[in-house]
């Protein structure tokens, strides 16, 4: 039996889980749900700036987040308070689990950053992934995570990442 779709304009809670523990939980607003992809918007969830060196996330930034029930990633479009696109942060995850109005995304440690003009495509946290032990504990998931990161990087380098979120 298919899960009911979330209604646009309603509230949702996003849970990001890493290494079996909840890393962060925040409120979001549903923008759409076609039964496969759920799109939500949420403000940057921390009261402080997080500067990665290549991009900084700050209070007032708005994230439009795309989660798939059948794909091993989530894509988060990031805009500053004035609406200017900063870029896309891609989390390699297990397919999202939607339970009521709660979305649970299990982070597999690999990430990809793509700048707004596509000139900066960065693989992130490969050291964390290697140290996570996932390759030993769940070789299938580790293989899917690595393959998914490679696929998203190819798509981004070909200029196709915005097409994933359209």
UniProtKB/TrEMBL annotation:
| Keywords, sorted A to Z | Hydrolase
**Is Transferase found in the keyword set?**
no
| Molecular functions per Gene Ontology | hydrolase activity
Domain named DUF402: which ranges? 56-153
Do you know which Pfam families this protein is assigned to? DUF402
Q: Which PANTHER family match?
A: PTHR39159, UPF0374 PROTEIN YGAC (PTHR39159:SF1)
Q: What is this protein called?
A: DUF402 domain-containing protein
Report the source organism: Actinacidiphila guanduensis
